[in-house]
Amino acid sequence: MAASLERNNAVTLPPMKRRTEKIRAVFRFTIPVVKGRSGRFTWSILKSIKSFKEKINSKNIDRIGKAFHIIVDGSDNFKTRFLINDYCFKKKKVLISGAISKFDGQVYTFNFLKKNSPCLKCFIPKMPPNPDIDNCEFDGVLGPLAGIIGSIQANEVVKEILGIGNTLCGFILIVDALKLTFRKVKLNKRLGCICYEK
Ligand SMILES: [Zn+2]
Questions:
Q1: Fewer Cβ atoms within 10 A, N terminus or C terminus of the chain?
Q2: How far is the CA of 100 from the centre of ligand 1 (A)?
Q3: How would CATH label the architecture of 54-198?
């Protein structure tokens, strides 16, 4: 989702259509004030945020993705998720992928610099039969779950940058928001997958 910066220090997100609620809403939130050593606002940090107001596809993914070592995927459809997975594998990037549907969420870290890293297609080998319907827009999703999964993805990014803690690479984190359980399940490379080398 694209976000636009405004001079009043707020971010306005475009209206979100939710089938389950059948309402349109504009969400606003405030970016915390960032102070540099001089005590003045460090607008350079905000200015360094790049936004791309175009839908990612096979033609533009390299132009958008080549400058980034770590890519975080929060997209809502299998076509895009497969595209980003294949691109990150090919270009040996770190992919931190999050998915939510109804009351469940998953987080994956794929570090394609490591030879033993599985990929998304090890877990989901084929596109579901109805990829345009099998997504959170049609299934609905418990709102706070998006924040939980997004925060865990951000935590993975910080760990990858700093090289600390235990990587999630080789596991899937499965979150059940109703039971409030977090399970880490081993994910190995799948024989015959694009990431599998003999
Ligand atoms: Zn794979």
A1: C
A2: 20
A3: 3-Layer(aba) Sandwich (3.40)
State the amino acid at position 139 in one-letter form. Answer: D
Q: Break the chain into its structural domains and give their ranges.
A: 1-51, 54-198
* Cα 181 to middle of ligand 1, angstroms: 26
> What pLDDT score was predicted for residue 92?
97
Please report which confidence band the pLDDT of residue 19 belongs to, taking 50, 70 and 90 as the band edges. Answer: very low
Partnered with residue 183 across adjacent β-strands are 174
How many angstroms separate the alpha carbon of residue 187 from the centre of ligand 1? 10
Would you list the DSSP string of 64-112? HHTT-SEEEE--SSHHHHHHHHHHHHHTT-EEEEEEEEBTEEEEEEEET
Per-residue pLDDT tens digits for 145-181: 999 999 999 999 999 999 999 999 999 999 999 999 9
Say if residue 47's pLDDT is above 90. no
